[in-house]
Specification:
The chain contains eight helices and twelve strands. The chain starts with 14 loop residues before the first helix and ends in a 21-residue tail after the last helix.
Length: about 260
């Protein structure tokens, strides 16, 4: 099993813990509220064990594959499918589809992950990848990327009016919900991504440009670190404690202190 170094208290979730979470804690109402109770033709996706190498044996051949969930009646159906797969990660597709399954827009998002920043202790992403630790991160890297998320939120506020921040379990996502942003072309998204990077923010350009359309589903479990993907208000973003905040800790961690 691949082992990444993580902040103290973060660890891989077991299959039984994933099951327990999605049975007892996965809040479908809050998920519905995230989509403003208008799921439309939203597609979901799961990855069972690409990074943790923890997966149900019957899915071994597809453990690293992205499985699209696009046939469901409601969110309760999505929960049933998640419980069938017990994945390490759950996503939703940011594309907007019409009745003929044609893409007519895409939610704009910015992904800031801690492994992308240069750490005075662990070095650059290239350094980490040479050591086989590309997804590893420490508390210092998490603090750095959190400050970047605050700065990027302020930067984007000058251009967009409906922004949402989400703690992904590892880093931070900023979602732009302005109607006009859904209509941006690939070229416009790429130009914006490069503008943001030029300002010094370590975003994943692939996500912002729209080439990678999946993003973690709020209120799902990040099985790599045993943290709940959690939306944050702007005023919470700066003081948020990503390691210890109880709202992000699944019950299976109990009263553990870190």
């Amino acid at each position: 099993m691949a082992q990444y170094y993580l902040p103290k208290g973060m660890r891989y979730s077991t299959l039984e813990e994933r099951k327990q979470f999605y049975l007892d804690e996965f809040d479908l109402k809050k998920v519905g509220d995230w989509f403003r109770n208008n799921l439309g033709r939203t597609k979901f996706a799961v990855i069972m064990g690409r990074h943790t190498k923890i997966f149900l044996e019957q899915y071994r051949e597809d453990a690293a594959t992205t499985i699209i969930l696009d046939e469901y009646k409601n969110l309760a159906d999505i929960r049933i499918q998640i419980l069938d797969f017990l994945p390490e990660a759950v996503y939703y597709d940011r594309n907007i589809y019409d009745q003929n399954d044609h893409v007519v827009g895409q939610e704009l998002a910015f992904d800031l992950d801690p492994e992308n920043v240069t750490c005075p202790v662990h070095g650059t992403l290239a350094d980490k990848m040479k050591r086989g630790q590309g997804l590893s991160f420490c508390e210092l890297e998490l603090e750095i990327v959190q400050k970047e998320a605050v700065g990027l939120f302020d930067f984007l506020s000058g251009r967009f009016s409906d922004l949402r921040a989400v703690y992904s379990g590892r880093g931070f996502h900023l979602h732009v919900m302005d109607r006009g942003a859904y209509c941006l072309s690939t070229e416009e998204r790429l130009a914006l991504a490069r503008e943001v990077k030029a300002e010094g923010f370590h975003i994943d350009e692939w996500v912002t440009s729209g080439e990678y359309r999946l993003i973690r589903l709020p209120y799902s479990l990040n099985g790599l670190v045993s943290r709940i993907v959690f939306p944050l208000k702007k005023e919470e973003l700066e003081s948020f404690d990503a390691v210890h905040d109880r709202r992000c800790l699944p019950r299976f961690l109990g009263e553990a202190t870190f």
